What does this fold into?
Amino acid sequence: MLNNSDLILVAGATGGVGQLIVAKLLEKNLSVRALTRNKSKAEKMFDDKVDIVVGDLRQSDTLMTAIENVNYIICCTGTTAFPSQRWDFVNFFEAKNSPQIVDGEGVKNLILAAPSSLKRFVFISSCGVLRKDNFPFNILNAFGVLDAKLDAENCLKKSGLPYTIIRPGRLIDGPYTSYDLNTLLKAKTDGKKAVVIGTGDNLNGDTSRIDVANVCIECLNYDVTMNKAVDIINSGVRPPVIDWEQLFSSMRRERD
Ligand SMILES: NC(=O)c1ccc[n+]([C@@H]2O[C@H](COP(=O)([O-])OP(=O)(O)OC[C@H]3O[C@@H](n4cnc5c(N)ncnc54)[C@H](OP(=O)(O)O)[C@@H]3O)[C@@H](O)[C@H]2O)c1
It folds into this structure.
């Protein structure tokens, strides 16, 4: 259960989901540390309200200050599934920030750096990690993003840290930070779609960035989500209030 003396590190705080997570944590008067490669971007975004630490998942030595005294880590870093400028190309064949490097090796560096006293490590993975050979996930995985996510999931499971893995579907709703069709179309749920939670990577559909941010924080309040992978999409009519306890209780007897 989160409390006001906890310090929460958000890795990828400047990203679409990351910004929402930071905002929601601040709303709850919690202490937030933002990990970013770009200090001035984070300063403009967070306006002195969070502790900003510069670090790069690719370089373990840059993560040491970030993990000092943290009680929770929420990792929502990522790059694009398909080649883009975010891959930081050196030449046509070599990229410095590909999925394998950031989503795989980078996340593993953060897991290995995390203090053993950590209360929870929340990692945003992706739906499809257990269905990589099936359409449409075989297309999504053409450049290895699901391989990298699964690799990081497995490292987290073996780490001995208390964890929750979040597996969203294709992200919709702003902030529109990724370069994909949904970003171009600015697809959104208008806050009208219900949250559907599952286990075992069986769900298909889109997921609102807003609900991904919500589930990353809400899961910390429920022991049933400890050491589980939580699948999440949006579907159906949204009730006036989301009952996270009831949504998570459906996971009680399930394996991830
Ligand atoms: N797009 C989808 O449809 C989809 C589907 C399923 C799961 N996901 C996952 O959902 C999560 C959130 O997605 P999003 O679109 O909100 O993310 P995003 O806007 O693309 O943000 C990614 C963040 O990762 C950080 N980052 C990138 N490389 C880094 C590195 N080497 N070291 C440290 N930080 C690094 C960036 O921070 P700085 O530039 O400030 O360092 C940025 O804030 C990601 O984990 C993504 O893989 C996405």
About this structure: The pocket of NAP is lined by residues 12, 14-18, 36-38, 41, 56-58, 76-79, 97, 102, 106, 124, 126, 168, 170-171, 177-178, 209 (CB under 6 Å). The chain has one domain: 7-249. The chain has a mean pLDDT of 93. DSSP finds nine helices and twelve strands in the chain.
